Amino acid sequence: MDIIVTGVLLSGTYALIAIGLTLQYGVARIMNLANGETLVAACFAAFWLFVTFQVSPILGLVVIAPAAFALNWLIYRLLLAPLVRRAKSRGALEVDAILATFGLLFLLQGLMLLGFGGEYFTYSFLAEPFRILGNPYGLNRVVAFLAAVVIAGGLWLFLGFTRAGTAVRAVAVAPEAAGLVAIDVPRFSAFAFALGGAVTAAGGTLLSTFYTFNASMGVVFTMKALIIVIMGGVGDVRGAVLAALILGLAETAVASLIDPGLTLAATYALFILTLLFRPQGLFGRAPS
Questions:
Q1: b/e string for 124-146 if b means 16 or more Cβ within 10 A?
Q2: Which one of 5, 180, 213, 223 has the fewest beta carbons within 10 angstroms of its own beta carbon?
Q3: Integer distance in angstroms from the first to the last C-alpha of the chain?
């Protein structure tokens, strides 16, 4: 039972990180290899606000998420939109986007190394026990999970029950057809990319409340997000949430029952199994 509860609590932040990449890749068609750097930057921002101004990370979301939205919107407009306009096919766009965001990864990582160095950081926020079914768990993990549920629920309501959310889903499914019904595809692609960055930053802010981080760990979370997106089905938010739950449970089980050093190996094992037996993802459709 301890493994299940701990895995579920971890899966909340994993889901936000993966939903962010799902919006960027599934809607904007940009495989953002710098996604993890957005997460780490949010960790540092939450750390700085808490240590310097004693601002709760939960309140810090009000500043960090909009800042990440604005930064990712600028990145899309200045760096990625020209690639989208010149691309002659989706395959060409994916190659260009991977190369561009790969360079962006090292730029952002270098800036964080310059500002914070290579050491690990952590801070004490709600580091006290909270009992679930008689067992103690970190209150910071519980609060982070509940906040992730609220954010994911708000995103689900937005995508499912607003005109802008419907437009985003239309661009994800068929961008050419969306353009034929007066949807501004470039505008909503930029919006989805920026929203994905904001959701990822929210996940990073919550993760920082119970996770030790440093400036070089973004690539690990980019890979985890990518694995979750592929497991769940590219562009499918439901699949990303379920895959995040599976990954959280798997990592917790391996860390508890075998060796904490093998959690990353378990992640890649799940990825390989998905590619072998369910390449279209949990909710994806096999090509006919």
A1: ebbeeeeeeeeeebbbbbbbbbe
A2: 180
A3: 41
267 three-class SS: helix
Work out the average pLDDT over 262-281.
82
pLDDT tens sequence across 133-161: 888 889 999 999 999 999 999 999 999 99
Angle at the Cα of 196 (from 102 to 239), degrees rounded to 5?
100
Per-residue pLDDT tens over the stretch 117-130: 989 999 999 888 88
- Tell how far CA 68 is from the center of its chain: 12
3-state secondary structure of 131: strand
Half-sphere exposure of 136 (CA within 13 A, CB side): 4
Cβ neighbours, 10 Å, residue 77: 14
Is the CB of residue 105 less than 8 Å from the CB of residue 197? no
Amino acid at 47: F
Does the pLDDT at position 287 exceed 60?
Answer: no
Distance CA 108, CA 92 (A): 24
pTM for this model (two decimals): 0.93
* Tokens found for residue 75: 């990145």
Q: Helix, strand, or coil here: 248?
A: helix
CA distance 9 to 1: 12
Q: What is the pLDDT of residues 220-248, one digit of tens each?
A: 899 888 888 888 877 777 888 888 888 88
Q: Is 216 helix (H, G, I), strand (E, B) or coil?
A: coil
| CA nearest to 159, candidates 5, 7, 22, 9 | 22
